[in-house]
Amino acid sequence: MKNSTRGSVDPFIVMDVMEAARAAEEAGRHIIHMEVGQPGTPAPKGARAALTKAMTDDALGYTVALGLPALRQRIAKLYKEWYGLELDPARVVVTSGSSGAFLLAFTALFDAGDKVALGAPGYPSYRQILKSLSLTPVEVQTKAENRLQPVPSELEGIDWQGLLVASPANPTGTMLGFDALKELIDCAQARNAAFISDEIYHGIEYEAKAVTALQVSDDVCVINSFSKYFSMTGWRVGWMVVPDAQVRQIERLAQNMFICPPHASQIAALAALDDTDELEANMDVYRKNRALMLEGLPRAGFTKIAPPDGAFYVYADVSDLTDDSRAFAAEILEKAGVAVTPGLDFDRERGAQTLRFSYARGTADIEEGLSRLKAFMEQRG
Questions:
Q1: Mean pLDDT within 246-261
Q2: Running DSSP on this structure, what letter comes out for residue 136?
Q3: 12 pLDDT higher than 90
Q4: Cis peptide, bond prior to residue 168, ω within 30 of zero
Q5: For labeling, which of 43, 99, 232, 328 is most exposed (least CB within 10 Å)?
Q6: 5 by DSSP, 3-state: which?
Q7: Which residues contact 332 (CB under 8 A, 6 or more apart)?
Q8: Is the pTM of this model over 0.85?
Q9: Residue 13 pLDDT > 90, yes or no?
Q10: What count of Cα atoms within 13 Å lies in the side-chain half-sphere of residue 148?
């Protein structure tokens, strides 16, 4: 059988880095993981306890396609707690991770051949999912003076039917303020284009609270996840908030594509929403790690960095050190025992001169990783 052209997507390079790190560990080496955007903490205790009880008391069969009503209601309440917004739970759709939400959003909002604008650097799977659905990603090369976020002037003169932004962003950790976000939403709505806001790093912020697109307009699609702030990556549960007019469209797609999100994960997610003390304790670790990174990376020789507003990444310009970030990352793994992600994942034009460092792990790992990086760079000269 022949392969489809839709399926000919690029690999996710960070997963290749993870595999190389795993192989090194299997060979007996101790590797510090700064490559993957995954909390080093498990799901909150309350989430795990709720699932333990449910596995005894409940068959955990199918739920309705849009998710457990209690979970949808509790997510709506979160928007009141975090942003002061009154949100109708009927607009909340629980999904199989944010990846499931992107599949639903792209399928519900666009026809084959439509073009979706997005900033580079950016999360690579946006491009690959769009391509696999016969949609065309239109990448905009963002500028350092705009904190590597897109601005309306960069969208002029190109054809697009949708705009996707992320704040806090991966790989940069930069955020869009209310005015900047409004300008982009207004730009999309002026041309009757769909606006999708990736907000999966909300909750992981440092100097200021992230702004949700729902504070600007109800005519947007917002995507979030329990993977990052709620420390539930492998549980594969997320959500989306959509306008009333899109709910039934997405429900029909969800029924056929997924049947429902994992019931067990929804039980855990519902309890996780009330584990505030444990989640904020995780944030204390990220704050400490961020401070260590912003001090330790320049000391090691990675001087071209900007403080992230949110998430748990530092994106570094290493153009003074290499023009082959993939080979450089492999050298760091081999000689320093630290796994980092080459920027090629995030920016096909400039990524050969950038690296992403994650500080989502425990503080001891971050301290050890920075020490190894400093020694490596001193030896490298």
A1: 98
A2: E
A3: no
A4: yes
A5: 99
A6: coil
A7: 338, 339, 340, 373, 376
A8: yes
A9: no
A10: 27
Residue 30 pLDDT grade (very low, low, confident, very high; cuts 50, 70, 90): very high
HEC string of 191-219 equals CCCEEEEECCCCCCECCCCCCCHHHCCCC
Spatial separation of the C-alpha atoms in residues 260 and 315, rounded to whole Å: 36
Contact 225, 97 (CB under 8 A): yes
DSSP state of 116: E
Cross-strand partners of 282:
none
DSSP string spanning 168-195?
Answer: S-TTT-----HHHHHHHHHHHHHTT-EE
The full DSSP string for 212-253 is: PGGGT-SSSEEEEESSSTT--GGG--EEEE--HHHHHHHHHH
Residue that the structure tokens 């001087």 belong to: 303
pLDDT in tens, 131-162: 999 999 999 999 999 999 999 999 999 999 99
* β partners of residue 166: 198
pLDDT tens across 81-126, in order?
999 999 999 999 999 999 999 999 999 999 999 999 999 999 999 9
Greatest C-alpha distance within the chain: 61
Which DSSP string corresponds to 339-379? E-EEGGGT-TTTGGGEEEEE--S-HHHHHHHHHHHHHHHHH
pLDDT at residue 186, rounded to an integer: 98
